[in-house]
């Protein structure tokens, strides 16, 4: 044995004792939620939680009820499972429950970006100006050009691209939506062929990072994977510089100008770009996949979406060497597709909403019972389990119902109930309150535009019509839109030119 080995073993033992010290002695105090620390000092329930967060939380809920505190990797997290009790948490001020502290730690670790106090307001201001209203109209125009470039090629439509092509539906949707969004937001070179090559290269690297992302967040990567992540981070920082690019969105230009005025370095601006690429493109492709898959698995729903598209867009006309045409006003006249998207997000979006407790906090449940939560702990909501899959709120929650969010008269349905009480938080894919996703309008517009183009201009079909809808990947619980455990082969072709 090496002479230094005993000393190393002793040091590691001391570190383990030090790290587990809070977990060894913390006890549940009067009026606190049930405390479940698990059997492993410091780690607590981390291993079971990471293996399958959904099933683990189901077991904890069955064991402890609607509120309980877990030890997870040296932290104490209180899960609130009763959606009727969400309101007070979501409305609480930052002085008591703060999301930004956790978010700042995460973006520094994942993207290398050091946010400032002004950044959150800057992003919300930029999103309000340029990702909704008139600003969104302008960005939709750029997005349509990018989708035409990615789907049809630099020369537009041609008779030779009308044959059947096969792909995995998940890969296809993620690839197309990512590249179109990337080119629309971050600009490109003048050479369209070169722009496509750069977008494809970016997607390949992004997808590699995406696969490592869940375990990266939890620091569970193998040594070689840590090296890969570091290499990819540096590569993104270089590739996402917008210097010498054309067509950079006003949304991104506005924020970069604000960072320059703050005195942020070019290197930090490039890291900011990496963060915004992830925020804008990490979920739209996967969500588009689930939406198209559900439509292909439910022909009646696909027929209804196509009928609606024809009503608002008319007969599609695509001539040789031309790009897609689209009336953007149609995006506001698609209640059926809107319901499809809400239902898709209900079934596929699995975010965890976290708040850091800034001072000892009294949590009041819907039944009037109160619990004390300690300063420094976290409060977590997991709407997928407690809202989206609640059969009281959404009957037959495991089924895709394209009209679940439609009233009989075709208007949007917003009246949902639990235990006979109207519930306001019946769908929470974007978060809620002051921390709701600021880019949700552009993200939804991007996905709807892609789906409308696909169902209008293309013939689509599954290779195996009987293939099962793949389960959600358990490794991605808590991280935005979940991804499938396997891809689904399909084929597509451009409809004959007119």
Automatic annotation (TrEMBL):
<dbReference type="InterPro" id="IPR024204">
    <property type="entry name" value="Cyt_P450_CYP7A1-type"/>
</dbReference>
<dbReference type="InterPro" id="IPR036396">
    <property type="entry name" value="Cyt_P450_sf"/>
</dbReference>
<protein>
    <submittedName>
        <fullName>7-alpha-hydroxycholest-4-en-3-one 12-alpha-hydroxylase</fullName>
    </submittedName>
</protein>
<feature type="binding site">
    <location>
        <position position="378"/>
    </location>
    <ligand>
        <name>substrate</name>
    </ligand>
</feature>
<keyword id="KW-0349">Heme</keyword>
<keyword id="KW-0812">Transmembrane</keyword>
<dbReference type="InterPro" id="IPR002403">
    <property type="entry name" value="Cyt_P450_E_grp-IV"/>
</dbReference>
<keyword id="KW-0256">Endoplasmic reticulum</keyword>
<keyword id="KW-1133">Transmembrane helix</keyword>
<dbReference type="InterPro" id="IPR001128">
    <property type="entry name" value="Cyt_P450"/>
</dbReference>
<keyword id="KW-0479">Metal-binding</keyword>
<dbReference type="GO" id="GO:0008397">
    <property type="term" value="F:sterol 12-alpha-hydroxylase activity"/>
</dbReference>
<feature type="binding site" description="axial binding residue">
    <location>
        <position position="437"/>
    </location>
    <ligand>
        <name>heme</name>
    </ligand>
</feature>
<comment type="similarity">
    <text>Belongs to the cytochrome P450 family.</text>
</comment>
<feature type="binding site">
    <location>
        <position position="109"/>
    </location>
    <ligand>
        <name>substrate</name>
    </ligand>
</feature>
<dbReference type="GO" id="GO:0005506">
    <property type="term" value="F:iron ion binding"/>
</dbReference>
<keyword id="KW-0444">Lipid biosynthesis</keyword>
<dbReference type="GO" id="GO:0020037">
    <property type="term" value="F:heme binding"/>
</dbReference>
<keyword id="KW-0408">Iron</keyword>
<dbReference type="Pfam" id="PF00067">
    <property type="entry name" value="p450"/>
</dbReference>
<dbReference type="GO" id="GO:0005789">
    <property type="term" value="C:endoplasmic reticulum membrane"/>
</dbReference>
<keyword id="KW-0472">Membrane</keyword>
<feature type="binding site">
    <location>
        <position position="283"/>
    </location>
    <ligand>
        <name>substrate</name>
    </ligand>
</feature>
<keyword id="KW-0443">Lipid metabolism</keyword>
<dbReference type="GO" id="GO:0006629">
    <property type="term" value="P:lipid metabolic process"/>
</dbReference>
């Amino acid at each position: 044995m090496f002479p230094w080995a005993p000393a190393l073993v002793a040091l590691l033992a001391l570190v383990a004792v030090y790290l587990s010290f809070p977990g060894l002695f913390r006890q549940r105090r009067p009026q606190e939620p049930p405390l479940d620390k698990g059997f492993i000092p410091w780690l607590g329930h981390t291993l079971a939680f990471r293996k399958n967060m959904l099933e683990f939380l189901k077991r904890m809920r069955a064991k402890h009820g609607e509120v309980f505190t877990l030890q997870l990797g040296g932290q104490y997290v209180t899960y609130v499972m009763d959606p009727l009790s969400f309101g007070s948490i979501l409305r609480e001020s930052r002085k008591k429950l703060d999301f930004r502290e956790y978010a700042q730690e995460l973006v520094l670790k994942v993207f290398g970006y050091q946010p400032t106090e002004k950044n959150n307001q800057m992003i919300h201001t930029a999103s309000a100006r340029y990702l909704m209203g008139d600003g969104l109209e302008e960005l939709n125009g750029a997005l349509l050009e990018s989708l035409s470039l990615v789907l049809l090629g630099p020369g537009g439509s041609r008779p030779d691209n009308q044959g059947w092509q096969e792909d995995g539906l998940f890969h296809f949707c993620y690839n197309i939506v990512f590249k179109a969004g990337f080119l629309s937001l971050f600009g490109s070179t003048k050479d369209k062929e070169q722009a496509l090559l750069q977008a494809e290269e970016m997607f390949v690297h992004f997808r590699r990072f995406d696969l490592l992302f869940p375990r990266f967040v939890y620091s569970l990567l193998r040594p070689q994977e840590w090296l890969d992540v570091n290499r990819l981070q540096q590569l993104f920082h270089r590739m996402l510089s917008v210097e010498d690019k054309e067509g950079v969105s006003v949304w991104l230009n506005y924020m970069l100008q604000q960072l320059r005025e703050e005195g942020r370095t070019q290197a930090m601006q490039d890291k900011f770009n990496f963060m915004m690429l992830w925020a804008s493109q990490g979920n739209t492709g996967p969500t588009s996949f689930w939406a198209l898959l559900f439509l292909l698995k439910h022909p009646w729903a696909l027929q209804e979406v196509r009928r609606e598209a024809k009503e608002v867009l008319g007969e599609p006309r695509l001539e040789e060497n031309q790009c897609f045409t689209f009336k953007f006003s149609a995006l506001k006249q698609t209640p059926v597709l809107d319901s499809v998207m809400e239902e898709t997000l209900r079934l596929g979006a699995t975010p965890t909403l976290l708040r850091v407790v800034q001072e000892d906090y009294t949590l009041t449940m819907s039944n009037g019972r109160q619990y004390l939560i300690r300063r420094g702990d976290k409060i977590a909501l997991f709407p997928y389990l407690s809202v989206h899959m609640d059969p009281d709120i959404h009957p037959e929650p495991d089924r895709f119902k394209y009209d679940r969010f439609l009233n009989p008269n075709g208007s949007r349905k917003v009246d949902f109930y639990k235990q006979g009480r109207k519930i306001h938080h019946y769908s929470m894919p974007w978060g809620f309150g002051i921390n709701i996703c600021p880019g949700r309008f552009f993200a939804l517009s991007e996905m709807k535009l892609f789906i409308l183009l696909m169902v209008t201009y293309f013939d689509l079909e599954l290779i195996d019509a009987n293939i099962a809808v793949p389960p959600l990947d358990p490794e991605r619980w808590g991280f935005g839109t979940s991804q499938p455990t396997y891809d689904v082969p399909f084929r597509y072709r451009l409809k004959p030119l007119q």
